[in-house]
Amino acid sequence: MVRQILFRVIYADENADRDTVHNALISQMTWKPALLRNHMRHRIKSVAYPAVAPHKGKNVQGILVSGLTDGDIRRLDRFEGDQYDRKVLGVELLGEDGVFGTGGNVEAEVYMWNYKYEGLRRGEWSIEEFREVHLSKWVGEAGEHEYQDIETDYAVAAVSDVPAKDGGDKSKAQKESGAKTDAADVEDDDMDAAV
């Protein structure tokens, strides 16, 4: 998941990392590069977002996000909808030596496509193509319709959100790749944005 979309889902503001109030919440999160082996981000027919599904010999590289609140996870679940199931899978963390696995192995919650291979197109989904062609339809006013299902949560978020009981160390693949630490969904390219 692109960082701006994650922030839009959680905070109703894709630029939350530039806001002092949200920065206090964001500072509770940790972002670690992670790898989900034998899975792939597939392209889906008629939509711009990906579907993570098993695929022998392929890997999903992303970011494991920890420190999400129960409310954050609830909003992510609602945003992902019934097309995805949050599953606990093992991911490898990037070590200081730049090698996945040497940073440890952890369980992460990953948003997995729940229709087996139905609706998927041939080929691997590209974060670069998404950024160049589709991101503008997901952020700013043009993207408002993408977030309608979670609008009611924003009103109570500031009052009811507390860190998840488990520390939020679960992952939306982990949608960049993580336990609702969402590793499989947060793109490694999003590290430079303030997964």
From TrEMBL:
<keyword id="KW-0808">Transferase</keyword>
<dbReference type="InterPro" id="IPR013024">
    <property type="entry name" value="GGCT-like"/>
</dbReference>
<dbReference type="InterPro" id="IPR036568">
    <property type="entry name" value="GGCT-like_sf"/>
</dbReference>
<feature type="domain" description="Gamma-glutamylcyclotransferase AIG2-like">
    <location>
        <begin position="30"/>
        <end position="125"/>
    </location>
</feature>
<dbReference type="InterPro" id="IPR009288">
    <property type="entry name" value="AIG2-like_dom"/>
</dbReference>
<feature type="region of interest" description="Disordered">
    <location>
        <begin position="161"/>
        <end position="195"/>
    </location>
</feature>
<comment type="similarity">
    <text>Belongs to the gamma-glutamylcyclotransferase family.</text>
</comment>
<dbReference type="Pfam" id="PF06094">
    <property type="entry name" value="GGACT"/>
</dbReference>
<feature type="compositionally biased region" description="Basic and acidic residues">
    <location>
        <begin position="163"/>
        <end position="183"/>
    </location>
</feature>
<dbReference type="InterPro" id="IPR045038">
    <property type="entry name" value="AIG2-like"/>
</dbReference>
<protein>
    <recommendedName>
        <fullName>Putative gamma-glutamylcyclotransferase</fullName>
    </recommendedName>
</protein>
<feature type="compositionally biased region" description="Acidic residues">
    <location>
        <begin position="184"/>
        <end position="195"/>
    </location>
</feature>
<dbReference type="GO" id="GO:0016740">
    <property type="term" value="F:transferase activity"/>
</dbReference>
